[in-house]
Write a structure and sequence with these properties.
The chain is of the alpha+beta class and 354 residues long. The chain folds into 2 domains: 5-204, Murine Class I Major Histocompatibility Complex, H2-DB, Chain A, domain 1; 211-314, Sandwich (Immunoglobulin-like). The chain is 37% helix and 34% strand. It has helices spanning 5-13, 15-18, 23-28, 76-79, 82-109, 162-173, 175-199, 201-204, 314-353; strands spanning 30-42, 45-54, 57-62, 69-71, 116-126, 132-140, 143-149, 154-157, 211-220, 223-233, 238-244, 247-248, 255-257, 261-262, 268-276, 284-290, 298-301, 309-310. It has an 8-stranded antiparallel sheet with strand order 4-3-2-1-5-6-7-8, with helices on both faces. Strands 9, 10, 13, 14 and 15 form a 5-stranded antiparallel sheet that branches. A hairpin with a 2-residue loop joins β11 and β12. The radius of gyration is 29 Å and the shape is globular.
Length: 354
């Protein structure tokens, strides 16, 4: 399923917000995120886009004209009672009205030039031990601006300037708003996420195998760059390492690995580059570990990038090749036998005629 272009753009714009988390976090925890981009063209026109994500599964988006929720997964609406969705929509509308008014008022007070963009992300993370963590962050024109500390219900400055201090002080005056955030993301968010996890367990269990290739670039005669490109995998968590003569190359300046980036088909990709000396006498391979591979690894030797070896599957692959060879040999012999019988039959007929 392809993402709508508008939602895909929203994901790319907010992608730096989504990069937090380690291999263990993504394997063992689930995060519900609400993303918002509000473009303030002037004091009377604000263009707002919203997106809800469970991990990286798109749950729904906000209609920019009516502020109603459009569901993008068939199991999202049944996960909560209709009355809950009505309440959520009403709260969104009230929030956006107050948000737009507060931002415009602050812009006029501090002579902020239009247009400008405000990005927000808020949500909660549920861990296997049933503990949880709520979060809320605000960015202004693509730069981190404020962070909400749930523990003591305060807004912290991500950048210290007159505008950020003014907005922080205004938010601290809205004690009811702060209390609402705490209730929503400490209690309601977790309760709703547990229901979504139950209804969306099949989508969350989706796995796509990685496809990897290794190729080389030569920026100078004294340097060879080995590039391991891995793409098409899901879920996002993955481990990519370089092996030299079978031993893992430790992290260092010789290895440059990109961030994990999204593909348009809801899978992921990354690149890892290893700098080596040309003709140094060593063998190199790129090793990929991913949940879809189970306990196996994907191993791509340099110089054999078209050959993809999965450790642990060697015997199975050899068995398949052997069976195919036996079938081809059997078919060849059978055809040869038929040709010999037909030839003998023709010779017999000719001899009788003679």
């Amino acid at each position: 399923m392809q993402l709508p272009r508008r939602c895909l753009l929203l994901l790319f714009l907010l992608y730096p917000f989504l990069l937090s988390g380690t291999w263990a976090d993504l394997e063992e925890a689930f995060t519900l995120r609400l993303l918002q981009i509000s473009t303030f063209q002037n004091t009377s026109f604000v263009d707002t886009e919203g997106l809800g994500l469970l991990e990286d599964i798109e749950l729904g988006s906000l209609d920019k004209h009516t502020w109603k929720i459009h569901f993008h997964q068939p199991w999202v609406r049944p996960a909560l009672p209709l009355s809950d969705w009505d309440m959520i929509e009403n709260m969104i509308k009230i929030y956006l009205q107050k948000f737009n008014h507060m931002v415009n008022e602050g812009a006029m007070q501090k002579d902020v030039p239009y247009p400008f963009v405000v990005q927000c992300i808020a949500g909660c993370t549920l861990y296997p031990n049933k503990t949880s963590h709520a979060f809320a962050r605000v960015a202004f024109n693509g730069q981190d601006f404020l962070t909400f500390c749930v523990d003591n219900a305060t807004w912290l400055l991500s950048q210290d300037n007159e505008l950020s201090r003014y907005v922080r002080d205004v938010l601290h005056k809205y004690t009811a708003f702060t209390e609402l955030i705490q209730v929503l993301f400490n209690d309601t968010c977790i309760d709703d996420m547990e229901m979504l996890l139950h209804y969306g367990n099949v989508a969350l269990a989706r796995q796509e195998l990685p496809v990897a290739t290794v190729f080389a670039r030569t920026p100078s005669p004294a340097q060879l760059l080995l590039v391991c490109r891995v793409t098409g995998f899901y879920p996002r968590s993955i481990s990519v390492a370089w092996l030299q003569d079978g031993q893992e190359v430790p992290p260092g300046p010789a290895i440059n690995t990109s961030a994990i980036l999204p593909n348009a088909d809801l899978t992921y990709q990354l690149r890892s580059v290893l700098a080596v000396a040309p003709r140094d006498g060593h063998s190199y391979a790129c090793r990929v570990r991913h949940r879809s591979l189970g306990t196996r690894s994907l191993l791509i030797p340099w110089g054999s990038s078209e050959l993809v070896l999965i450790a642990g599957l060697g015997a199975g692959l050899l068995a398949v090749v052997a069976m195919a060879a036996i079938m081809v040999l059997w078919l060849w012999r059978r055809r040869k036998h038929q040709q010999m019988e037909e030839s003998g039959s023709r010779n017999s007929i000719l001899s009788k005629e003679a």
